[in-house]
Amino acid sequence: MLMTKERRPAIRTLRGWAVNVLQEAGAIHECEEHGWARDRADPHARTRALALARKHPPDGVSADQAVAEINDVLDSIGDACPECPDESL
User: I need a labelling partner for 78 at 20 to 30 A (CA). Which of 28, 45, 61, 85 fits?
Assistant: First the structure.
């Protein structure tokens, strides 16, 4: 019987790669209802994501560029879903 290994989806952009790294490190997650990315505000997960970016940048991208993209994505994501009702009300 031929066994195949499940392949990860291809990442087509540097931003997509950064989002994937952040999700794997546990720094961001999706809103269960709407799918928006949410920052978990976990400093250890951020540190793991930045370490992964430095050690394993995508092909053709320097470690500095990979770290910069991780930081850009983190700066663009909030800790609340824009479609969820405000929990403070």
Answer: 61
Tens of pLDDT along 15-41?
Answer: 999 999 999 999 999 888 888 888 998
Is residue 19 within 8 Å of 37, Cβ to Cβ? Answer: yes
Residue 12 near residue 51 (C-beta atoms within 8 A): no
- Looking at the DSSP assignment, which residues form a beta bridge with residue 39? 28
User: What residue segments make up the domains of the chain, in order of their start?
Assistant: 14-76
- Beta carbons of 27 and 46 less than 8 angstroms apart: yes
- Residue 89's pLDDT is 42
Decide: 19 and 32 in contact? Cβ < 8 Å. Answer: no
Minimal CA–CA distance to 18: which of 55, 59, 57? Answer: 57
Examine the pLDDT at 86 and tell me if it is beyond 80.
no
Q: 39 with 79: CB under 8 angstroms? A: yes
Whether pTM exceeds 0.90: no
